[in-house]
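thread: overnight batch results

M.L. [08:02]
morning all. the overnight job finished for the chain we discussed friday. pasting input first so we're all looking at the same thing
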Amino acid sequence: MPFTVRDLQSLIRALEKRAEWKAELRRLLLTDELLALPQVVRDLSVEVGRLTAQVRALAEDHARLAESHAELVHEVRELAASHARLAESHP
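M.L. [08:03]
and the structure it wrote out:
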């Protein structure tokens, strides 16, 4: 006896009512790799969150370093100008 559309609809209704049947059918039809995907995605999401926090911290560190660098460049230029003025006044 062939499997009909009516049989499929009956199966779908039964699976909607019986979660354990649905889980068993899923286990039979899908590979272990596909069944593991939800956990893989959760793990990746946690890791992406951790990496995002690290990137933000690095960006903040970079901004502070860039500001310090700009201040140092300014101070070196002032020192060079002072040195030049001293050298001119004391030949």
